Amino acid sequence: QAKSVGGNNQYFYNPALQAALEIRTELGRDLHSAISGHQLSLYYQAQVDNKRQVLGAEVLLRWQHPQRGLISPLLFIPLTEEKGVIIDIGHWVLESACMQLKAWEADPRFSALKIAVNVSARQFYQVDFVEQVICILRNTAVDPHKLKLELTESVVMDDIDGTIVKMHALRRYGVSFSLDDFGTGYSSLSYLTQLPVDQLKIDQSFVHNIGVKHSDAIIVQTIIGMADNLGMEVLAEGVETEAQRLFLEQHGCRHYQGFLFCRPAPIAELETLVIPAPAAHIII
Ligand code: C2E
Ligand code: MG
Ligand code: MG
Ligand code: MG
User: Fold this and answer.
1) How many CB atoms lie within 10 A of CB 276?
2) Which residue, judged by its Cα, is nearest atom 16 of ligand 1?
3) Suppose 248 and one of 10, 213, 253, 279 were both cysteines; which one would form an S-S bond, judging by CB atoms 3.0 to 4.6 Å apart?
4) Residue 11: predicted pLDDT
């Protein structure tokens, strides 16, 4: 049997694999202290329009591990899903995002900004997810139109009928929806017409390949055209170069997110992008 797995007993003593497993075990063990020890924080990445005007931000989780430094959510979100703690973490992210929106409402420089929050499968499939979101919005007294929830295709496809019911309930309340990593899922296109989605986010892998792989450039154009025909907004994620941005603009995309504009950063840093600090010499 071992032969069909690796064909070589060395496989079982692979030091790199061993190390990866150890990290996983260690992170899994440390997750609870991450939550209780306030090691989780939120970064914000701007979403901009054609004129680089900041329209809002996506909130992204970070884990400041005492030994390992800043850990990517790609590494620890799956662990939080396995252990179920994503429910509490996800609730905290939503609550924090709404509290941020509330703080912004008092400041005319920031009062028009929206915040996009990633929602994991396990979080979304809680029976009372809709009630939880509405409760947070009520408690923080935030305008629901400023909150955007990001779902991936795979979350939606797991239970399309149940998903549509929940989406309609939240949209009636004013919340909008974005389909994250669009184009990477296995879904058929016909379901898209039934989904009450406000925005498609073109996955960054396609954006990355715009000038590299012709078929990916075609996919980008197709997604933009499709969103347009379905009356949805389209946002390109992972925009890193001006050439990519130009291609996207020329093909009708109007919303962008990526390192070309800014990296995810603590809230104070994002705020400096919204209103550039006045030049010192003007004050003198
Ligand atoms: P995502 O929602 O697709 O977020 C976009 C990811 O792309 C972020 O990675 C962001 O830092 C990165 N990114 C943005 N612009 C660029 C760019 O120009 N180039 C490149 N190479 N990357 C760029 P991050 O922050 O590591 O997050 C990874 C994923 O973790 C997110 O993908 C999302 O699926 C998940 N995640 C993050 N925060 C949360 C959260 O609060 N809840 C849940 N459920 N998932 C989260
Ligand atoms: Mg996202
Ligand atoms: Mg994405
Ligand atoms: Mg992603």
Assistant:
1) 7
2) 238
3) 253
4) 58
